[in-house]
Design a protein that fits this description.
With about 600 residues, the chain is α+β, with helices and mostly antiparallel strands. It has 18 helices and 26 strands. The longest helix has 30 residues.
Length: about 600
C-alpha cells in the first residue's frame, strides 16, 4: 500500500497463521458517505452532528524481555503486538431503533504496525460490508480505556498524538480532531473528523477499571481464568493463549472494545438528557461544572457574579490563522483580584499525617471518615458580596463560617495534642506547634478555641449571605438523584461523581501544576476551570481540616490516632470516644449542614452516622 496516496480498500488477516491465516478485504465507497468531500472546497463542520460513528479500540500484546528486543520493533514499544480489535456502531441524535454495529479483529504480520487511517478504514469498511446501504456521518469518536497504552500501536502514532491533548496522562482530543481521508490516488471520496476519547476519564471513581465499567453496564469484561491467579498467568502469556485457544482469545479481545462503545453511548445519552447536547464530553467532571452553571442560570442567578468574575473581550493573536481574534475571558473582578495571590496562599489541600510508626499496639483500630466532607463544606458558602471586600485589622469576631482569610503568627499550648494551623513547606503542609500560617476562618476560629497565642498580620473578609447558600441546591439535587438509583448502578455512581468532583474544579490551577502539551511539545501550567475560585477552595479545605482538628483534639489521652488522611482518621477510639469527640461546635455545624443536604441523617445515633 502506497502511504503517499489515499486508499479506500483494506486487506488484513483476521486469523493468525496457525489458525488458517484468513484475510479479509473491505472497501469504502462514496455512496456510503452522507457528505462526501467536494474537490477544491474545505469541509464545513456542523456545530453539532446528528449522528456519530463510535469506534471502540483495543490491542493485545505479549511482553518482550529486554534481551529479546529487536531493532525491528518500534523503539520504546517493548511488546509483541498480537492483535488490533474494534467495535463500531452508528448512533443518531433521534435514537433510531436500528443502530448498525460490527466488530472485528486484525492480526498484524510480525513486526507490522498499522497506520491510524488503516485501522479506522478497516473498521468503517467492515460496517459497510455488513450494512451496504448505510449512509455514514463524518463524525467519529475513537474510544479506548487508558488509550495511552494502545495509541502507540499505530506506526504514525507520534504525528497523530500531537493533534491531541494531554489530560491526566492520556490522549484526548480537546481543541481539534484528527482528519482521516479515504479515496483513490489523490482524490478523496470520504473525510472523517476523528475525536479521541478515553473512557477512564469518564468513569466514576468507584469503577475506574474497564471491568468496573462493564459491570456498571451489565456487560461484564470476560475473565480468562477461573481464579485471579490463573487469569494473571494467562494474561502474561497471551501469545500462547492466542495460539492454543484462538476463539476464546478473539472473544476476549473484542469485548474490551465493545465495552468502550456501550459506555460511550451511555455517556452521550446522559449529555443529551441533561444538556440536549449530542456530544461526548472529555471528562466526567465537566458534567458537574456544566450542571452547576446551568442550575444558577435557571434560577436567574449570574454565575460570574457568584464566582467574583466579569466578562471581558480581549484580542489574542492566532499563530495558526495569522491574525488577531476576539476572545471572551472571565477574569476575577478587580476587588477580588487585588487579593488573589494572598488568598491562594491560604489555600491548602487535605491534612495527611502519620503519628505512629512501626508496629502499633494490638487492639481494635477503626477508620472513620467525614461523609461527603468537601461537598458539605461547599454547601455552607453563602452568596458572596464581592463589591464590599474589606481588609481586616484584627482577629476579633471571626466566625467559623466566615469567608475570611488571615496571615497570623501562632503558638499552641503544650496541652494541645494536635495543632491545627497549616504551614506550607516544599514538601506539603505541616501542623507545627508554632510558626506563621496563611489560613481561612474555620481553622483560625478553632485555633482561638484551643487557646493558641495569635498575632495578627493580615486579614481579608468577603461578606456573604448565609441565608442564600451558593452551592447547596446543586449538591442537594446531586444527592437526591444519586439516592434515587440503586447503589452501584451507573446513575447512582454518576451523580455521586458529579457532586463530589465539583469541589476540585474550584481549586484547579491555583497551585501551579505542569502538564505536557503534545501540540507544542513542551510543558505548560494547568489552566483554571470555568469555576476556579481561590476564596471558595480555601474555605472548603480549611473547614474540613478544622472539623477533623476539633475531633482529634476532643479525644482523651488514652485514644491513639495512627494517621489522618484528608477527611478521615485511623484510631483505636471506641464508640463512646467518638461520640465525645464529635460534641464540639464545628462538628455540630457539619452535622447540621449534612442534614440540610440529606434529611435521612437523623436519629439517636446521628453524630456517629455523619461518618461512613
Amino acid at each position: 500500500m502506497h502511504k503517499s496516496t489515499l486508499a479506500k480498500e483494506f486487506t488484513f488477516k483476521i486469523e493468525p497463521d496457525d489458525h488458517g491465516g484468513k484475510k479479509k478485504t473491505v472497501t469504502i465507497q462514496s455512496q456510503n458517505i452522507s457528505e462526501p468531500p467536494v474537490a477544491g472546497k474545505k469541509q464545513r463542520r456542523k456545530k453539532e452532528p446528528n449522528a456519530h460513528l463510535l469506534i471502540g479500540f483495543d490491542t493485545e500484546y505479549q511482553s518482550v524481555a529486554d534481551n529479546e528486543l529487536e531493532s525491528t520493533i518500534e523503539a520504546g514499544a517493548k511488546n509483541e503486538l498480537l492483535s488490533y480489535q474494534f467495535s463500531i456502531k452508528l448512533i443518531t441524535k433521534d435514537a433510531q431503533a436500528e443502530t448498525p454495529e460490527a466488530d472485528g479483529i486484525i492480526i498484524p504480520d510480525e513486526d507490522q504496525r498499522l497506520t491510524f487511517s488503516e485501522f479506522v478504514g478497516f473498521a468503517i469498511g467492515s460496517l459497510i460490508e455488513k450494512f451496504p446501504d448505510l449512509k455514514l456521518p463524518n463524525s467519529i469518536y475513537l474510544l479506548g480505556h487508558f488509550i495511552r497504552a494502545d495509541f502507540p500501536a499505530f506506526s504514525d502514532f507520534k504525528d497523530n498524538a500531537r493533534l491531541t491533548s494531554n489530560v491526566r496522562s492520556t490522549f484526548v482530543s480537546i481543541d481539534s480532531a484528527i482528519s482521516v481521508k479515504f479515496g483513490e490516488a489523490d482524490t478523496a471520496i470520504a473525510e472523517f473528523n476523528v475525536v479521541v476519547r478515553d473512557t477512564i476519564l469518564l468513569a466514576p471513581s468507584n469503577a475506574k477499571s474497564l471491568a468496573g465499567i462493564g459491570d456498571l453496564l451489565g456487560f461484564p469484561k470476560i475473565q480468562l481464568g477461573k481464579t485471579p491467579q490463573e487469569d494473571k498467568e494467562i494474561k502474561e502469556n497471551m501469545a500462547r493463549f492466542r495460539r492454543e485457544r484462538w476463539s476464546e482469545f478473539r472473544e476476549y479481545a473484542i469485548r474490551d472494545a465493545q465495552v468502550c462503545v456501550r459506555f460511550a453511548e451511555r455517556i452521550i445519552q446522559q449529555s443529551q438528557t441533561l444538556f440536549t447536547s449530542f456530544k461526548m464530553p472529555a471528562t466526567l467532571t465537566s458534567f458537574g461544572t456544566k450542571l452547576l452553571l446551568q442550575g444558577w442560570q435557571q434560577k436567574g442567578l449570574d454565575g460570574n457574579q457568584i464566582l467574583g468574575r466579569e466578562t471581558v473581550k480581549e484580542k489574542i493573536f492566532s499563530k495558526k490563522d495569522g491574525y488577531f481574534k476576539t476572545k471572551i475571558v472571565t477574569p476575577l473582578k478587580e476587588e477580588a483580584y487585588f487579593n488573589e495571590a494572598f488568598i491562594t496562599e491560604t489555600y491548602h489541600g487535605g491534612r495527611n499525617e502519620q503519628f505512629i510508626f512501626g508496629i502499633a499496639d494490638e487492639g481494635e483500630w477503626r477508620d472513620h471518615d467525614l461523609s461527603s466532607a468537601y461537598t458539605t463544606a461547599m454547601s455552607l458558602i453563602g452568596m458572596p458580596d464581592w463589591d464590599n471586600i474589606t481588609n481586616l485589622i484584627d482577629l476579633d469576631d471571626v466566625g467559623p463560617h466566615d469567608l475570611s482569610f488571615f496571615s497570623v503568627d501562632f503558638e499552641f499550648p503544650q496541652s494541645v495534642r494536635f495543632p491545627t494551623l497549616p504551614v506550607r513547606t516544599a514538601n506539603g503542609i505541616i501542623f507545627p506547634r508554632k510558626g506563621n500560617s496563611k489560613c481561612a476562618a474555620p481553622e483560625l476560629y478553632l485555633a482561638k478555641k484551643l487557646g493558641a497565642r495569635l498575632t495578627f498580620r493580615k486579614g481579608v473578609h468577603v461578606p456573604t449571605n448565609c441565608h442564600h447558600p451558593a452551592f447547596r441546591d446543586f449538591i442537594k439535587t446531586s444527592i437526591e438523584k444519586r439516592m434515587a438509583h440503586p447503589k452501584g448502578t451507573f446513575d447512582n455512581l454518576f451523580w455521586k461523581e458529579v457532586g463530589n468532583s465539583t469541589y476540585g474544579k474550584t481549586a484547579q490551577g491555583l497551585r501551579e501544576k505542569r502538564v505536557y502539551n503534545l501540540q507544542d511539545d513542551g510543558m505548560e501550567a494547568l489552566p483554571p476551570s470555568k469555576i476556579t475560585q481561590p476564596y471558595f477552595a480555601s474555605f472548603i479545605t480549611s473547614y474540613t481540616r478544622a472539623v477533623l482538628g476539633e475531633i482529634l483534639n476532643g479525644f482523651a489521652e488514652h485514644v491513639d490516632v495512627f494517621s489522618v488522611t484528608t477527611d478521615g482518621f485511623l484510631s483505636n477510639a471506641s464508640d463512646q470516644d467518638i461520640e465525645t469527640a464529635t460534641s464540639g461546635e464545628l462538628f455540630k455545624s457539619f452535622r447540621a449542614a449534612r442534614r440540610h443536604l440529606d434529611e435521612r441523617w437523623l436519629g439517636l445515633s446521628e453524630q456517629l452516622r455523619a461518618f461512613r
